[in-house]
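Quick look at the format.
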Amino acid sequence: MIGGNISIVGKPNVGKSTLFNLLVQKHLAGATRKPQTTRHTIDGVLEEENAKYQFIDTPGLNFNIKKNFNRVLNKNALSAIYQSNLILHLVKYNQINKDDIKVLENIKNLELPKILVLNKIDLIRDKNRLMDILSKIPSEISDYYDEIIPVSSKSSKNIDILKKIIKKSLSKSKKNPIESIINKRPIEFFTAEYIREACIRYLSEEIPYSLHVEINKYEESRKLISIAATIYLRKKSHLSIVVGKNGSMLVKISKAARIYSEKLLNKKVFLKIFVKYDPKWKESEYFLNSYD
């Protein structure tokens, strides 16, 4: 059986999590239009046609911000890359810029197959424009990749072709397949991610990046899973916004996270969310360690 670990890498907000969810055929990673939705490496397995793929969604690589939190996220992404059998470098089809080049600088010397994936081609109306874009990718970029493929995660265009290229590339990989380079996440981890995804989706631009979600209780019976979680906020003024008038926003966040959790767990979920103010959570060693 052909198999291996495939890391999906790129700068923030290029659609890595959407592609990851599409490839593993499950909603495991938070996917929104806002940058840096992904904070953890998340893995998911797909088995089909005598092949076993372990896809790894990674945090967006951001080398411009030197905060400890960003260093942790970069470290997590790079550690997955260095142990992979194949790399999918995701970029926006019409916007290969200096941040994409910085990602390339970190992978170009690795002796393993690399595929440049041009995402969001569903936005292109004229097919000739796509051919023009492909022809204008500089050789100093394209030469580092074994394949270049345009796709649309939104419409699934060329995804089957991408999987065929991955399978072909893995069959030629010099590295032995690694069964699991990332510890399997506990199931409650995904509920925390669903809560954070809902916060990013429904709250204003600033708030989601200054919060952390922690699962306090996870109890499973034959018919029901009871989960308690806490949203930690860095600003006291955000408390009323996250809770909403008469608790309306918290209900909205809880409902979205519960629905995703029930789909994943295939069981009824009771979800209770608390909100707390903690201005220093992002600097706390405990919280930073939770992202290792």
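Next, a different chain entirely:
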Amino acid sequence: MATTAKSQSTSKSRKKTRRTGTRDPLAVKLLKQDHRQVEAWFDEYEQLEADAEKLELFNQIALALKVHTQIEEEIFYPEERGEVEDDMLDEAYVEHDGAKKLIAEIEGMQPSEEYYDAKVKVLGEYIKHHVKEEEQPGGIFAQAKRGEEDLDAMGERIKVRKEELMQKMGASRPN
């Protein structure tokens, strides 16, 4: 009987750990880290008033999103085709395309222009929706974790590619 109680306790703690993402395979962990970073930057953007600060932070957000979407499109999505429902992956590509177009539009503007802040806000909401689609139970990440792909090995490839893209796009990466 004591064994059963201990086994139930262990099972409960495992479920809780999974929900927090601490046991995620490396690929999912890295992609979620990107999500949290960009979400924090969108929240920070809401507090800014100076145009120069807004422009600097938006440029960080844009770079992070460009690198992240490229990594997902080059590595994660193609390798998960067959593991994750096709409709979900197709929608993710379309959402990426919409985000890229909005980023390009914002990059062609100045923070002092009409609708600049509104467009950044809408981009943030768009990204939040996309992240939810990837991270929700039954979403892209959950399906990927149930698949056959080695997500830890994929995570190593993602790390390397992220470094390459950050350098290529002229950014120095902290860490």
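The CA atoms of residues 14 and 20 lie 10 Å apart.

See the schema section for token definitions.
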